[in-house]
Structure formats: structure tokens, C-alpha cells
Amino acid sequence: MRVNLEEAIALLKQGQNVAVPTETVYGLAGDARNAAAIAQIYAIKQRPANNPLIVHLADSHQVLDWASEFSPLAQKLADAFWPGPLTLVLPAKETVLPEVRAGEPTVALRVPAHPLMQAVLQKSGLALAAPSANQYTQLSPTTAAHVAQGLGDSVAVLDGGACDVGIESTIVYVDSNAWSLLRLGMISESQIANVAGCAQTKREENPVPKAPGQHLLHYSPSTPIRLFSSKKALIDYAEEQPNVALLLIGESTVSKSQTFTLSVVPKEAAAHLYDQLHQMDALGVEELLIEFPPESADWSAIRDRLQRAAHA
Ligand code: TXA
Ligand code: MG
Predict the structure, then answer these.
(1) For ligand 1, is residue 166 a contact (CB within 6 Å)?
(2) What is the per-residue pLDDT for 213?
(3) How far is the CA of 236 from the centre of ligand 1 (A)?
């Protein structure tokens, strides 16, 4: 069910959930101070209770309402990348609902850039807990139509168009003056290291909290995926298969029907990746054959999502 901005705000204030646009993916939002609203998010997504939620804030002035410490390093990262596709995991204040942080001593915070999401946050005055608006383990939605396909039409959706970043935020754990990547995203490790002025602390050197949702089966269409590191091997395999769809990087001359293409520019490829996968999944074919991106750093977040989607 589509709702407008005023309706979305009214529902959120009443403790209801609304799917909202962000620049990364659509989130299923609820008032982060309302335990019933949070319980409903877990129920709609069928998400296990040990997988914490990201709290979305209008601006970084609200960080200390949620985190017990906003270290100079965390502030530098916030100044550089907020509003935007970066989530910071910081020590939580005790007042943060345990349901939001799934009992962890930390809380994940993000200031999103999408103008409509900013309007919701600013006009409502709420902080919004919002995981991606899909069923647990499934592909994240990057349009309002994907949300309705995945969660059903009874979920209220605020339509903000297609998401420009297209994959979920980069998650960084900050422990005073050290940091570690918990989830890859389109803000890269080297961009973070440049702003931080130091490399990440490797997990082996200093145990960091795992992002509990980062197990391998994730971001998955329902059709099985087969990844190919060579375009030629993919095309040869496809010749023998009557009922498959192909996803190739860059234009190609393959005459096979059901061929989709991703841009050779990683940022553009990310923006369209989930929409392509949603469309391919809807075809009802037996397998999705996907060209695996090159091993360079600028494709790392996309490689990560495809590996998880393929359970590789
Ligand atoms: O781009 C995004 O991050 C989107 C939009 C809606 O903001 N949200 C999103 O949420 O991807 P979700 O719930 O699908 O993924 C959040 C990830 C999960 O893997 C969760 O385990 C991790 O963040 N996370 C949340 N709180 C955490 C915490 N306190 N410590 C470690 N990981 C945390
Ligand atoms: Mg998710």
C-alpha cells in the first residue's frame, strides 16, 4: 500500500512500520524508541532476534542520544561520509532498547542522504530503526515495487524512486581510535582509511564484534545462481542450457534471450544490480548465470553481494 509523506509520518508516530526509501536500499522503518514497533519489524521480516537493526538519524547531533561515546575518529568518519551510505557501530547507551541492538553492547547508526528519508526523519523528530525491507535472507529492495513483491501489499510504502547507491551501506565498527570493516559497501576500505588516517585493525589482532547478519546465505534471489569468472565459460555453458538467464558485465553480442547487462563502471553496476536480479528472478528460469566482476577493489562490495547471493 503506497502512502505519502504525511501518512508515513503519522503511521510511524503511531508505532506502525513503513517501508522508506534510502540512497542504498529501502528500509522497513519503525520508531527506535518503541519496543512494539521494533517487534513488528522482526515479525514482518521473519528475522531472528539476534540480528540487530541500524538506527537512522536526521543528523550527527543525535549520535550521543544513542552512543555512549562519539570518539574523534568516529566524528571524522561521520563528518566525511554523512549523510550517506556509511553505518557506524559504536558503544551503545544503556537506554537503547535491547531489541534494537539484539542484546549487543553496541548500536549501529546511520544518517541517510535520501531527501525523502531526510524529510521523514526531520519532520517526525523520530529516530528510525530500519533493516532492509525484505524477508530475511532475500534480496534487498531498491524500488517501492520490490518492497511490495517481497513483503506483500499490506506493508505501507513511501515511494522515493529507485535507490541510487543500490547496495547496503558500508558498516564500520569504531572502538575509540581503531576501526574495522564489518560489511563492505560502496564507500570503500581505502576511502575510510584515508579519512581515518590509519588502516583497519584486523580481526585477528583485536577481536571485533561480528555483524550477526553477515552469514553467507544472504541477499539471495530464489532462483539458484552460478558465478563465472570468465565471460566465455559462461556463454559456453549457456549454449547448452535452454532455461537460464544471463547477467554479463558490459555490452555483449550474445543472442541468447534473457540476457541482462551490468555497466562496466562499478558505481553504475551497483545502482542497478538488485533490480536486475529481481527481474531475472521473476522469469522463473532454472538458473541465473552471472559474470563475476574483476578482482579489483572498486568491485569488492559487488563481489561480496554476489558471493552471498550465490551462497558461494
Ligand atoms: O544500507 C543499509 O544499511 C540499509 C538501509 C535501510 O539503511 N539497511 C540494512 O539493514 O542493510 P540490515 O538490517 O539489512 O543490515 C544491517 C546489518 C546487519 O548485518 C546487522 O547484523 C548489522 O547491520 N548490525 C546492526 N547493528 C549492529 C551492531 N550493533 N553490531 C554489529 N552489527 C550490527
Ligand atoms: Mg538486510
Answers:
(1) no
(2) 54
(3) 38
